TrEMBL record:
Residues 3-140 form the Pherophorin domain. This is Pherophorin domain-containing protein. It comes from the Eukaryota.
Length: 147
């Protein structure tokens, strides 16, 4: 399935002892002539959701997209006896603006100080997705090992 954009870690800095992470949106080839890939070719960049360690709720702060402040929302799911927690950040980035856009957030060192602490697994599972509803067709899963 085509994924028109994925996150590319662009910068890691330290502010007040906390780690600040910034990503750019990396464009991927989208083949509109392939039947299954057409679902993602024109998807909107409405949100990004990370699968996180449940102990890391409230660890993300100072989120922003292109300098505009955003706050995460956290959801915990129970599926087949297992618990999964996600952190969702609203992007609201137009496809035309994606190549020059940047997503940043800071992690509280007293809760989960690094991406390795935040992510629930050997790498970070995330999706850059459309909101569900009218016209929503794509929610591809990606992974990134940024440590």
């Amino acid at each position: 399935m085509a994924r028109p954009y994925r996150l590319a870690l662009a910068e890691v800095t330290v502010s007040g002892g906390d780690n600040v992470y910034c990503w750019s949106f990396e464009a991927l080839t989208c083949d509109a002539t392939s039947g299954t890939q057409t679902l993602c070719c024109d998807m909107r960049l409405d949100k990004v959701e990370f699968l996180i360690n449940g102990d890391c709720i409230q660890s993300i702060y100072n989120g922003n997209v292109n300098g505009k402040g955003i706050s995460p929302s956290y959801t915990t799911y129970d599926r087949a006896g297992a618990t999964y927690t996600t952190a969702k950040l609203r992007l609201n980035v137009a496809l035309s603006d994606a190549p020059s856009s940047k997503l940043c957030f800071t992690l509280r060192r007293g809760i989960c100080a690094s991406l390795q602490d935040l992510c629930a697994g050997p790498d970070c599972l995330y999706t850059v997705a459309e909101d569900p509803g009218a016209g929503a067709t794509c929610c591809p899963l990606e992974s990134g090992k940024w440590w």
